[in-house]
Amino acid sequence: MKRRRLSWGWTAFGLGAVLLLAALAWVTHIVNTLADQRIAAETAARHEERLRVALWRLDSSMAPRLAAEAARPFFHYLPRIPVERPYERMLDALAQNDAFVPSPLAAISDDVIVLHMMMLPGGQVVSPEISDGFDSRQSDVAVKSKRPVAPIPDPRQPLLDEVCVAIADTPMVAQIKSAIACQTMLVEESNAAIGSGLEANVPVLRDSANAFAGQSERQAQFDNDYTKRAQSSANVQQWAGPEAQKLAAAAYGSPGLSVGVFAPIWLAASGSDPVGSGEPRLCYFRQVDTPTGTAIQGFLVDWSRLATTLLAEIADVFPERCHAELVRMPPFAAGAPPGNRMATVPAALVVDVEPVVASGSVERLTLALAWGAALAAIGAGGLSLRTAQRDSERRARFAGTVTHELRTPLTTFQLYTDMLAANMVPAERREEYLRTLRDESHRLGDLVENVLAYARIEEGRHRGHPERLTTADLLARVAPPLVRRAEEAGLELRLQAPNEADAERAQTVDPECVSRILFNLVDNAAKYAGGQESQDAAPQSAAHANGRAVVNLRTERRDGRLHVVVADHGPGVPEALRARLFRPFERGQDDAAQAQRGIGLGLALSRELARAMGGDLRHEPTEGGGATFRLVLG
Question: Would the pTM of this model clear 0.70, i.e. be above it?
């Protein structure tokens, strides 16, 4: 029944521990998931904030370049600019006798803008950098002589031819005009919002406004941010170019002339969808309306150099491990949210998201503490259960041993007193019976006194009676009961007297405790070493004298402390028992130990009494067999 209760106790404890760990594991999973989501959200928010900063920086870097191009007078796109001609007639064909000068664009060198071009109202495509063989160095000669000069080949002619092929295609022309119309509409919406005193935050294309319905707040923020950047760039162009040229046209008496803002578009030689088809070329176009017709002006950009220049502007925005790239996109793609695209260039900024690093957080620290507390609680619970189990087993052994030890003398008392009371004992044996009763009463008294003394020590109620005694006086007081117990067991207690100096040295000890400790040691020697046969050939060896086993008791002085050593020459302490030799109620498991009477409390009590006096009791290995105990006092 007892084992079953213990088994049920361990089962319940194990089940509780498993349930606790399972619940904690579930909580850990939930908390870690939420923490990972929070960290990922924070990382994404940082990435998006950096992305917005980078896009603003990119568009801010590109806006002055576009403003500078927008500020160029429309007639600068002519290879040869008429010297004397009305403002609105600048795009008309040159007459043979017209004086002209080369375009300023022919003398400008730019690493990013490689070519300017214009499609005249009649459909002819010209470039100020390529003037049909006219060299700017011969401008004075051309103006004075008004005669054509020998043509000089230009290495950019193939590039112009490629652009001519691209924009000569009717769908491409329509696409260019559509892009210009979208950019113009953006400016008009921005001006309308500014005129109304409202913040301009409408989508770029009205046709795609419904496509953003139901989008997330974060995406809406990106869209609004993109619209602001686009309108800011368009406004810069509008005031630098079209408005300025409108004022100039009015000043020259040509109010019918208007110049639009630049709109970007990708061109391909095939004239098909430019994105993804070979190596598309980035161009910017604007529309010029004159009384004689409509012209389209633009410039060709070296995309690889522009991308490198722009990326250098944002090198410090993102961590080094995050690769940034500008990816071509169709301009003004209807239905596609702006996201991470630039407003001044038809390209999207693609940056590797910073890896999410699961760093230490309050949640994980709390979990670690919770796991530590749970494991500590389980360990403490298991230790408590094990301790309770051991205490229960020890109490059971104690109860059984004490009951057995009490039954024997009580049975003897009952039997002998009954026989003595009934005069059943012969007169010559009455003394023997009385002596037996006396010995059993003494042994019973010692047993009870040991139990009570150990209980007082365990409860902290031990009160000693220390005295200042010399070594000789101490031995004189404790020796008689030791000699008597040894003689009862057929042993000889051999006292090795200390030298004269040590004998007269005094120390503060409790003689009653010392007497009980030494008595327990001699009593153990009497139980286990008494009656041992001599193992030496010589009958008068150190272990045996006069046919009796010897128990040696000697004193020593070490480090100013008194050492009392008790050594016998019995079977000694088994190796397996030495680790638990001083535990209460522990006895050997061999037949010799089980045959001896006792409850296994003597050595435990003796060590506790020694430590209560500030000393100690230790077991030491013994050469040649036997057991040696050293009592340290003082």
Answer: no
